[in-house]
Amino acid sequence: MPTPRLSWQLALLLLCSLLLACDKRKADIQAEPTPAAAGASSSTQAASSAPVPDPAANPRRIIRTGELSVETDAPEAVVRKLSVLAEDKGGFVISSDISRWKDADGAETVSTTLVFRVPVAAFDDALAAVRALGSRVATEKVTGQDVTEEYVDLEARVRAQRAIEEQYVKILGDAKSIPDVLAVQQKLGEVRTEIERAEGRRRFLESQTSLSTITVHVARHLEAIDTGGPGFGRSLREAMRDSVAVGIAIVNGAIRTVGVLLPVGLLLGVPGWLLLRSWRRRRALRAA
Fold first, then answer.
1. pLDDT per residue over 107-141, tens digit each?
2. CA proximity to 222, closest of 46, 102, 112
3. Is 271 part of a structural domain of the chain?
4. How far apart are the first and last CA of the chain?
């Protein structure tokens, strides 16, 4: 069984852990505090032994990304220049992908997607250099995500958890029985797990805010080219196609002509035939 003194110390540390968890929950669900609210919360932070971060010591941390689509007649040369550009700016290439597809008219489009990272200070210069490499910039998108508040919160959380870790280590040194040692080690493991999680997230934000990501789509449009050339087979096919078209045109013309002349023939032919028949009868009667 834990000793009374050790139990009192564990209870105190558990209370501190609960207070830190509550502060973390409030920070996640509340918006950015107003100046009055910040002044009211300073006393709570001082009570938890976590120093208030200095804004001057914590500059803005912004994750900047850019995505451009450029068109050029020499995509291979542009991709090589982009790789050199990334190295010259102190960055590196992450990935490169080439894709091809054909349109309905037979034209072929070749697109190369290159993703590279450069330091934040060289982000604007790198974008300007990418624009100058292509003959035309089809699309461009630049985004920025401010993670300063999250980064500062992670730093404060790590400091608070470090303080609790030191207290658990001291208690572990005073533990005399195996149940006391096991209880303290369990709590110490939970605190260290929280520290590793917060530090991992903080390192990720540092990487994302120190290096910006630029994605460049380099496209080249190739018109459809007929490489078959003139030949007997092609000429025969074209002649057959033309003869069929002429035959269809003749049939259509004949049908239209009959459609126009048939009413005229009926109007003129029937009276003429009746007159001719009457004339022949009179002539036969005179001859008789």
1. 677 788 999 999 999 999 999 999 998 888 888 99
2. 102
3. no
4. 157
Task: Tell me whether residue 285 is in a domain.
Answer: no
User: In whole angstroms, what is the distance from residue 65 CA to residue 142 CA?
Assistant: 6
Residue 139, strand partner residues: 69
CA dihedral 165, 169, 175, 181 (to 10 degrees): 70
Domain membership flag for residue 286: no
Q: DSSP for 120-146?
A: GGGHHHHHHHHHHHSSEEEEEEEEEEE
Output phi, psi for 229, to 5 deg: 75, 165
Phi, psi angle pair for 216, to nearest 5°: -120, 125
State pLDDT tens for residues 161-217. 999 999 888 888 887 888 888 888 888 899 999 999 999 999 999 999 999 999 999
Q: How far is Cα 81 from Cα 118, in angstroms, rounded to an integer?
A: 15
In a domain, 243, yes or no: no
Whole-model pTM: value is 0.54
The amino acid at 76: E
